[in-house]
Amino acid sequence: MDLNEFTSGKISLNQYVHHLAHNGVSFYVHYWGVIPKHYNNLLHKHSFFEVCFVVDGEGEYIDDGCTYPLQKNTMFFSRPEVLHQIKSKSGLSLLYVAFELIESESTEEWIRIMEEAKQYSEVIIDVKDDTTAALLWKSLLIQATKSEQAFFEEMLTNLAYSLILSLVQTFVSYLHNDNRDTSPKTASSLFNIAKLYIKDNLSQPLKLTDAARHLHISGRHLSRIFVSESGISYSEFVQNERIQRAATLLKTTDLSIKDISEETGFKNVHYFTRVFTSAMGSSPGRFRSLYIDLKATTYTEGKVQKQLLEI
């Protein structure tokens, strides 16, 4: 990454991105930095947090009397009121951002997290190019150079907010481990995708094996997911969706019974009528008539009531 390309982006960031707030947490960003060649600075401290990312080069970081080596893809974390210093003979390509929590606009949980972050001793981490924070920082800088694009400030703010959260997570993620189950909800995700597949393809046969192939899992696995997530079998779920869709079409369209049976994936009108009647307590034709009659009665009663009110 050639940082000379992003000096204009730094100007935009410092102009537009300072207050970042969402979902119970609010940060104030004091400044954004892009330095193609950084050598030495004096021993100093801040009243806020600062995170630096070494894009290229070598040097060392002194924090609270401890010295750490710096190299490409190193991130280091300067805590409030801690003396620190950066040194480099050959020069470092650096990105940096300084921020603090706005406690009056943040939850107690976030106040606790950032207070404990001040005590965290692991202040330097080696990251990879595809680390979330590294990718977000690069994306933010690219966006910051495109001020002529639509939604420029909105995208800049959202990317910056995501980056700050990612940086906090990079250094203090262990603080938020409260023994909750954080494993991916794979079954729930697959169940949601399967439901969408069923709803969007009701006119098709929708065999269990076809749906499983679509999700790249076995039919047995998909069958277990439906029982655990919905309490009914895959075939029962599909049939319920077909019936519900048919009922909606009967109420909202003028499609023939035959067309509706085909649209909802039933083999023929006779089979559709038998299944629908069993599930809904009336045949498709009677169901439509009852709904139309009810709608007409409701409309008529409403009209009469309106006329009475106008007398």
Looking at the overall shape, the CATH architecture of the largest domain is: Sandwich
Strand order across the largest sheet: 1-2-8-3-6-9
Q: The biggest beta sheet, please?
A: 6 strands, antiparallel
Order of helices and strands: HEEEEEEEEHEHHHHHHHHH
Task: Give me the CATH superfamily of the largest domain.
Answer: Jelly Rolls
Head-to-tail CA distance between termini: 78 Å
Number of domains: 2
- Strand residue percentage: 15-25%
What structural category arises from helix and sheet content?
alpha+beta
The number of distinct helices, counting runs of at least 4 residues, comes to 11
What does this 3D model show about the protein?
The protein has 311 residues and is α+β, with helices and mostly antiparallel strands. The chain has two domains: 3-176, Jelly Rolls (Sandwich); 186-288, Homeodomain-like (Arc Repressor Mutant, subunit A), CATH 1.10.10.60. It contains eleven helices and nine strands. The strands form two sheets. The protein has a six-stranded antiparallel sheet. A three-stranded antiparallel sheet has the order 5-4-7, with no helix packed on it. A hairpin with a 2-residue loop joins strand 1 (19-22) and strand 2 (25-38). The relative contact order is 0.09.
